[in-house]
Fold this sequence. Notes:
The chain has 89 residues and is α+β, with helices and mostly antiparallel strands. The chain is 11% helix and 28% strand. It is built from one helix and four strands. It has a two-stranded antiparallel sheet with strand order 1-2. A two-stranded antiparallel sheet has the order 3-4.
Amino acid sequence: TDRLMLTLWPGGDEVCEIAGCSESQGLSFGDLSTNYCNLRMLYCGSRQGCSPVKHDFTIAEQVAETSIGATTNPTDCLVLVGQSHGGEL
């Protein structure tokens, strides 16, 4: 189980700033970007390979901080059927 917090606020002309936190309620060492992807999948757009439900956002990530052993690899978030995190199965 993970705990998520997401805050959005206007950042200028047609810009929305997002700050978030995803925290595992257990050990997350070597998490294959799980906590990062929990948040990223809420806002990623078609340019990142996502299938938006209603609005297609263009994103520019500024900062992604992790706890020890956690990662922030966007390619871990969209793993195609028939592939593992490292490539072909």
